[in-house]
Design brief:
Elements: E1 8-11, E2 14-18, H1 23-28, H2 41-70, H3 73-78, H4 110-137, H5 140-156, H6 158-164, H7 166-194, H8 200-208, H9 210-228, H10 232-241, H11 243-252, H12 265-275, H13 290-294, H14 297-326, H15 332-362, H16 368-378, H17 381-393, H18 397-411, H19 421-425, H20 430-440, H21 443-456, H22 462-486, H23 504-512
Antiparallel strand pairs: 1-2
């Protein structure tokens, strides 16, 4: 089926207006009328996009919970060379800790577990730039579809691969990671097509907050399924359920509002006019201004913030269940609920914060740049303080969970902070910019699980984890300082795309100057 769109024609005094469909077109599209008006098309897009990230992150973090049930902990504690230096100061176990799960079948050391958890990011790193350019040059919608399908396949095949050899398991995780690497660049391109500037913080946050919602659902589901049915069913059930989204995405979403079927004419015109799009906007393929990008201070501000932010984000995302199990001695069922609680609060907090800053921007009380810096401040300074505090509460489980909840909730500020900043400074190259920064920011995803595994292999006490939290806090302080000083919310000059069929562009720019 080919994409259809309402034609745009020029009129005096306006760039473009919409010509109503002919009676024949109305007849052909009658079946679509019931959907129009129920929910604005841009928010239908945002909700389905959020679900896509919930799936991607859900299928990524389910292993963080399931691996606790996959590993033979009795063997690991009894193996030669294992040291329990801090047994006298270890936290007491849950009363039901011994009655929850049998040991798993795999005798993977903490270092091997760290390699398995980190292998996702090997593929994630490789997928960034292809994802960005394919989305800008072809179809971001189908890049997202391919990304989700790759994760579904890798997830469903995980039990078979794990039993064969952990090398095969690692390959499947790399495959999932490659799919995951396509997602952020592709979604940045779609957001630049669909989100009016005055609603960009809210729409961006709705979409990317799907990562925290997916984390919540995945951790709870993974814990319950592993506890009740066995760890293998974590991957079978969650992978197959994700197939429903693929059908809805192909059916309901297009790359551009000009192509969208399920949309009112008024909303289509509102989006196009607010973004300054024209009828042929989706045919333009501007070359990437590499020199300008690589010499842009605001771009490097985003790059450094993204890298530092992911150091903490990936440490928590991959290692929080392990910390709950190893240091605080929660059983897997409680582990799943308590590990997911902070991400639920993160989802709520990020939606509230994005709505507040967008309202302030609409009232001209703050600029886009200030809004981004406020949100990034929440995502850096508050978590840094909480991580320092966690290092001193010891085995006080309630205090540790409370501090982790506050820290992770405020990290949600990154969605309407530096993660949305690429589109502000260069909407025409948002996919490429996200691909570059997310590539560099993937390095912590590869190194952090291995480093944490190495540091905790011989000593997994709260005291050892304190070093990890203090280091993470220091990185967040660096993030806050550099982003506050160097970031910008203004469109950069190198984002301007001149069209050969619009000779008035130069004149307009001269007038503005």
């Amino acid at each position: 089926m080919t994409d259809t769109h309402v034609p745009l024609v020029p009129l005096a005094g306006k760039k473009y207006v919409f010509v109503p469909p002919t009676p024949r077109e109305n007849q052909e599209n009658k079946r679509h009328i019931p959907i129009e008006g129920i929910i604005p098309a841009r928010y239908l897009f945002a909700v389905l996009a959020a679900i896509s990230f919930a799936i991607i992150y859900g299928l990524k973090v389910n292993l963080s919970v399931a691996i606790v049930a996959m590993v033979n902990h009795t063997y690991l504690k009894g193996r030669e060379g294992y040291s329990n230096k801090s047994s006298a100061s270890e936290c007491p176990e849950d009363e039901s800790a011994h009655a929850t799960l049998d040991d798993g079948p795999f005798q993977w050391s903490e270092t091997v577990q760290g390699i398995i958890l980190g292998s996702y990011f090997w593929g994630y790193l490789i997928g960034q730039l292809p994802g960005g350019r394919m989305s800008e040059l072809h179809s971001a919608k189908y890049v997202m579809l391919i990304a989700v399908l790759m994760n579904i396949v890798g997830c469903v095949l995980t039990p078979v691969g794990s039993y064969e050899h952990y090398f095969i398991f690692i390959f499947l995780r790399v495959l999932q990671g490659f799919g995951g690497g396509l997602t952020f660049p592709a979604m940045h391109v779609l957001i630049s097509h669909w989100a009016p500037p005055q609603e960009r913080s809210v729409i961006t946050t709705i979409i990317y907050a799907g990562t925290s919602l997916g984390t919540v659902i995945s951790m709870i589901m993974a814990g319950q399924i592993a506890f009740s049915l066995g760890w293998e069913w974590v991957f079978y059930i969650m992978g197959l359920l994700s197939c429903i989204w693929c059908v809805l995405w192909v059916w309901l979403i297009k790359d551009f509002p000009q192509q969208q079927v399920y949309i009112t004419q008024e909303e289509r015109q509102y989006i196009v006019d607010s973004l300054g799009q024209t009828e042929d906007s989706h045919h333009k393929k501007p070359p990437v201004p590499w020199k300008a990008i690589l010499t842009s201070v605001p771009f490097y501000a985003i790059l450094i913030a993204h890298f530092c932010g992911n150091c903490g984000w990936y440490m928590l995302l991959t290692q929080l269940p392990t910390y709950m199990k190893q240091a605080l001695k929660f059983n897997i069922k409680n582990n799943a609920y308590l590990s997911s609680l902070p991400y639920f609060c993160m989802w709520i907090f990020s939606l509230i914060l994005s709505n507040v800053v967008d309202r302030l921007r609409a009232k001209k009380k703050i600029s886009t740049g200030v809004a981004r810096k406020i949100c990034t401040g929440f995502a850096s300074i508050v978590p840094a303080a909480c991580f320092v505090a966690v290092g001193f509460v010891g085995c006080n489980k309630a205090a540790a969970v409370a501090l982790m909840t506050v820290a992770i909730s405020c990290i949600g500020g990154m969605f309407c902070g530096f993660l949305g900043n690429h589109i502000d400074i260069a909407s025409n190259f948002a996919g490429t910019l996200m691909a570059i920064t997310n590539s560099i920011a993937t390095i912590p995803g590869i190194t952090v699980p291995v480093l944490v595994g190495y540091l905790t292999e011989q000593d997994s006490s709260v005291q050892q984890w304190r070093k990890i939290f203090f280091g993470t806090a220091a990185i967040y302080v660096v993030l806050f300082i550099e982003y506050t000083i160097f970031a910008s919310g203004e469109e950069q000059s190198w984002n301007k795309v001149e069209s050969a069929d619009r000779p008035e562009t130069a004149t307009e720019q001269q007038k503005e100057e």
